[in-house]
Amino acid sequence: MRLDAHVVVRRPTFTLDLSLVVEPGEVVALVGANGAGKTTFLHAVAGIVDLTDGHTRLGSRLLDEIATGVHVPTEERRAGLVFQHHVLFPHLNALENVAFGLRARGVPRKDAHERSCAWLDRLGVLEHAERPAARLSGGQAQRVALARTLVVEPDVLLLDEPFAALDETARPLVRDLLRERVFDNELPVVLVTHDPSDARALAHRIVALSSGRTYPDRRSPVAGRRSPNLTHAI
Amino acid sequence: MRASSRRPDRMAAEQILGERETLARPTRAARRRRAGRAPLALLVPAGLGLLFLSGPFVALLLRSPWGRLGELITSPTVLQALWLSLRTATAATAVCILLGVPLAWMLANTRFRGQDVLRAVITMPLVMPPVVGGVALLSLLGRRGLLGAHLDAWFGLTIPFTTTAVVIAEAFVALPFLVLSVDGSLRSVDRRFEQAAAVLGASRWYEFRRVTLPLVRPSVVAGGVLCFARALGEFGATITFAGNFPGITQTMPLAIYLALEQDPDVALALSLVLIAVSLAVLVGLRSRWLAGLTGVQR
Amino acid sequence: MRSPCRTATVLLAAVAGLALAGCSSDTADDAATSQARATTAAPTLSGDLVVFAASSLQGTFTEIRDELTATNPDLEVTLNFGSSGTLIQQLVAGAPADVYASANTQTMHDAAAVVNESQIFSHNSLVIVAPAGNPGEITGLTDFTRAALLLALCDESAPCGTAARTVFDNAGLTAAPDTYGHDARATLALVTGGEVDAAMVYKTDAIAAGDAVETITFPDAASVLNDYLIATTKDTKNREAAQAFVDYVMSAAGQKVLADAGFEPAS
C-alpha cells in the first residue's frame, strides 16, 4: 500500500507543510531538530491531529481531504503509529497490551493471545508476556509497543523516535529487529528520528524537516535504487 | 564516616546550606523532630480544632445509655431503620456511579458553551440546604409537580412516600461528590492513552471501558465512598420528599430525629449505631479513599 | 480610592450615633408614657419574658403576646415555638424559659422537674383535612383505610399523633397512612401542597389554613381532645411577668383569642 500525504497543519510558531509519498516496502526517515513538526506529521497521518489543508491517501483509501471535507476517524485508518515513549497501557501486562487492538476489533481472546504471543516471540520479548507494562525496561517496552502495533496488520507504519527511550545496548538490537523482522515488501514506513545515523542505517530515503518545511529531498546512501529489499543493505 | 567518600564540592555545599537542605528527603526521625518543634501559633488552633471536632463525639460516647444499649439496638424499629438506610444508601451510590461517571466524562472531555454553568448546576446540591433539595424534588416529582402530575394522571404513579423516593433524594444530594471526584481524575488521565487506543482501532466506548475507566478507578471508588456516607446521613431532602414511614421511608437519621422527641436514650443509641457504621465504611476503604482523592495511584 | 480602614470607622461611628440617638429618644418617651400610665392604669410589667409553646399555639400566642405588650410596653416577650418533645429537652437541659405551654398532658408531666403547678387552658380537637377540591373524595374516617389513597397522620412522637391513634382505636379502624408527619404543621403542609389526599390534624390548623384545605369532621371528634397546659417555670427570673402571662391566657381576653382560632374553652 502506498502512502500519499500532503500535510498542512498550522502550529502556533510555524506551519507544517510536507508532501510525502512512500511506496510499499519503502522506509523514509524524517529527520530534524525537536519541534520541527515531525511528530505532528505522523499524528496527522494517523488522524490524531486535524489537517489545516491537504490530503492523506493510503492505498486506494482517502483518509483526509480538506477540499472535499473527508475525514476518516483514527480508529478506522489502520495507520500503525508507535508513539514516542511507547505509551503502553499501564494497567495491563505485555500480552494484554499487544492483544488490545485485536480484542477491540472483536477477535476472540484465545485467537488474539496466540497471535500476540507470536509477535512477542518474533521481537524477542515473549518471556515478559505476563509482566505488567509498568515494569518493563525501555527496550522491552518499545518492542512490546511495536508488537502491539504490528499484530493488527496496519497499512502503514509510523515510528516516532523508536530509539529515543532506549539505552546503548538496546539500540542496535531494536535496529536489527526492525530491519529483519518488521520491515517487509509491502509496508510503507515513516521513521522519525533526530539521530541521522539511525536514519542512514534503516532508511531508503531521508527527508529533513525544519520549522515545518523540508530541506531538499536527499537520497540515503543505503538505497541506490528505490527497491525496498533491505536484506543486503548496510 | 561517610565524609571521605563525598566529593569536595558536596561537602562545601553541606557546610554552607546545612546538612538537612542537601538531603533529598528528610528521614523519618528528622520529620518527627521537625513536628515536635511546630510553632505554638499553629499548634494551639490545631488543638482547638481537634477538640472542637472530637469533643461532641466523646461527650456522646460518655452520655450513651450503655446499659440499655443491647436492648435498644436490637429493637425492631432500629433494625428496620438501619436496614432501610443501608439498602437505600447502596442503591443511591449505584445510581450516582451509573449517572455520575458519564456525566464527569462529559464535563472533562467535551467543550461547549455554558460548560461553567453546567458545572455550577452540578455543584448546587452541595451548597444548598438539603431541605431545599427536597422541595425542589417535590416541585418536579410531587403530586402537583412538573413531571409528577403527569406520572400520576397517566400511570397512576406517585413517587413521594416510596423507598424509591428515598433513593432519589439521597442520590440527588450525593451525586456532586462523585462527579467532582471523577471529573478531576479524568482530566489528569494522559491524552495519549486515548490516542493510542484509537490508533489500534478501538472505538471510544471500548477505549473508555478498557483504558480510561480502569485508570480512574481509585477516584470512582473514593467518590463512591463519599456518596455512600453522604447518602447514609441524608435527612432534609428525605423527610421533605420521601416522607416518614417505618420500614419504607424512615431512615436512620429520621428515626433519630423522631426519637429525640420521645426517648432521648433511643436517639443516643441510634446515633452511636450510625456513627459506628459510617466509621466502618470510611476506615475500611481509607487507603483507597485517600489515594483516589489525591489522584495518586498506589 | 478611599482606604477601607477609614470607611469602616466612618460606618461604625454613624451606626453608633444612630443607636445612641435612638436610645435617648426612647428614654425620653418612656419617661413621658410611664408617667402617664402611672396615673391611669395598674402597675405595668417590665423586663424580659421567654415563653416556650407548642407549635400549634403559634398564631394565638403571638396575638396574646401583642395584646400584652401593647398595655405593657416595658415588657419584652420572646416566643419560642417548637414540638412539645423538643421543648422539653431544651427545658430540662436548662434553657432559660419563664413560661411553658404544652399540647398534651404527657409532655407537661415530663417537664415536672422544671415547672410549677400547671393548669389546663384549652383543648384542641382533631379534624380530617383534604386539599382544596377534595380530589380523593374523602368523607370520613373509613377513607383512612383505603390503600389506594395517599394519606398522612402525625407521628406518634407528637401529641397530635397519639390523639389520632386514639381516634382510630376508638372507631375500631386500622389506618393505612403512607407517611407520618413529624408534627402537625408538617402534616398539614402535605395537604396544602397537594401531596396527600387526606390527613388528620388539629382543628385550629385547619382553620388557619383557610381555603387551602377542605375540612371534614367526624363523629366523636369531641371525645378525643388534647389538653393544653400552661405553667411557669421554677427557675423563672421574672416571676411577676410569667404569672401575668399565664393569668392573661386564662382570662376572658386570652380565652377569646384561643376560641377565635378554633380551640375549645378551658372548662
By CATH, the topology of chain A is Rossmann fold
Task: Give the domain tally of chain A.
Answer: 1
What is the CATH C level class of the largest domain in chain B, in words?
Mainly Alpha
- Taken in chain order, the helices and strands of chain A follow as EEEHEEEEHHHEHEHEEE
Order of helices and strands of chain B: HHHHHHHHHHHHHHHHH
Mean pLDDT of chain A: 86
Query: Ranges of chain B with pLDDT <50 over ≥5 residues?
Result: 1-6, 18-23
Helix content, binned percent of chain B: over 70%
Can you tell me the CATH class of chain A?
Alpha Beta
The H-level CATH homologous superfamily of chain A, spelled out, is P-loop containing nucleotide triphosphate hydrolases
Rounded radius of gyration of chain B (Å): 26 Å
- Which overall shape of chain B is indicated by the principal axes computed on the Cα atoms? flat
- Name given to the CATH homologous superfamily of the largest domain in chain B: MetI-like
Poorly predicted segments of chain A: 217-234
How far apart lie the N and C ends of chain A?
Answer: 25 Å
Structure commentary:
The complex is a heterotrimer of chains A (234), B (298) and C (267). Chain A is built from 6 helices and 12 strands. By secondary structure, chain A is α/β, with parallel strands linked by helices. Chain A has a single domain, classed as P-loop containing nucleotide triphosphate hydrolases (Rossmann fold, 3-Layer(aba) Sandwich). In chain A, the strands form 2 sheets. In chain A, strands 3, 7, 8, 9, 10, 11 and 12 form a 7-stranded mixed sheet that branches. In chain A, strand 8, helix 5 and strand 9 form a beta-alpha-beta unit. Chain B has 298 residues and is mostly helical. Chain B contains 17 helices and no strands. The N terminus of chain B is likely disordered. Chain C is α/β, with parallel strands linked by helices and 267 residues long. Chain C folds into 2 domains: 114 residues, Periplasmic binding protein-like II (D-Maltodextrin-Binding Protein, domain 2, 3-Layer(aba) Sandwich); 102 residues, 3-Layer(aba) Sandwich (D-Maltodextrin-Binding Protein, domain 2). In chain C, strands 1, 2, 3, 4, 5, 6, 7, 8 and 9 form a 9-stranded mixed sheet that branches. In chain C, helix 2 links the parallel strand 1 and strand 2. In chain C, helix 2 packs antiparallel against helix 9. Chains B and C meet through helix 15 of B and helix 3 and strand 6 of C.
